[in-house]
Amino acid sequence: MALLDWRSPQGGRQVTALRPGVLDLFSCAGGAGMGYAEAGFEVDGCDIAARPNYPFAYHHGDALEYLAHLIATGEIGRYTLVHASPPCQAKAALTVGTNASQGWGGTHEDLVAPTRDLLDASGVPYVIEQPNGRAEIRKDLSLCGEMFGLGVLRHRNFELGRWATARPAHPRHRGYVRGHRHGVRREGPYVAAYGNGGGKATVPEMQAAMGITWTDVREELTEAIPPAYTRWIGRAFLNARQEVLA
């Protein structure tokens, strides 16, 4: 049974628009935002980098400062859901695995905890997304491209705040990710949508594999999550919301 708490910190119930609003923090180029739009949300994004390819309304600035401003002014009440993908390279699988063993990389920022603190203070249901690794989030959902018939695996974990939904089954992978690993070249049904060289995906391959057509910037594609993930999450959230409001 899905659970939701729709009461704001000021009391009373949130006022919802015809299309519920989602705030897409640390939005990058909009992979998450597009999925929510396809699920029926009005999307507003925020990222510290300029994102001219972002396909929705967009605030260029620090995501946590912007969220704190929305909470302080009460404008956070415009949103039915907040999605956040805070940087956590310090505990990502690549950082704590291959990079650490080779002495590669430098100091990375972990914004997961301060993001959660503000989201809890907002009173709005939320989603925190992180890649596999040691990021300290609850893995309420774990999604993979094979669940949606995509050409990438791109495992991602999601912590759900102030709501819950059933976890989907994780299907067996159909084979390898194409490319070189540890001196071995493998072929497979999935492409590696990160890095360069070693058989990594080209920009057109990444676009096709993830269902992202509005940007051809490699860095944006390598950081994006496929819209199918948040389309699924958005629909699950709206179903849970409907149960509460019924």
Q: What is the general shape?
A: globular
N/C terminus separation: 14 Å
What's the oligomerization state? single chain
User: What percent strand?
Assistant: 15-25%
| Cα-atom radius of gyration | 18 Å
Q: How much is the average pLDDT?
A: 88
Largest sheet: 7 strands, mixed
Give the beta-strand count.
9
Secondary structural class: alpha/beta
Low-confidence stretches: 1-17, 95-101
What's the helix-strand series? EHEEHEHHEEEEEHHH
State the share of residues found in helices, binned by percent: 25-40%
The largest sheet has its strands arranged as 3-2-1-4-5-7-6
DSSP helical segment count = 7
Summarize the structure in words:
The model is unreliable at about 1-15 and about 95-100 (pLDDT under 50). A 7-stranded mixed β-sheet has the order 3-2-1-4-5-7-6, with helices on both faces. Strands 8-9 form a two-stranded antiparallel ribbon. The protein starts with 20 loop residues before the first strand and ends with a helix. By secondary structure, it is of the alpha/beta class. It has helices at about 30-40, 65-75, 95-100, 110-120, 205-210, 220-225, 225-245; strands at about 20-25, 40-45, 55-60, 80-85, 125-130, 140-145, 155-160, 180, 185. About 30% of the residues lie in helices and about 15% in strands. It is built from 7 helices and 9 strands.
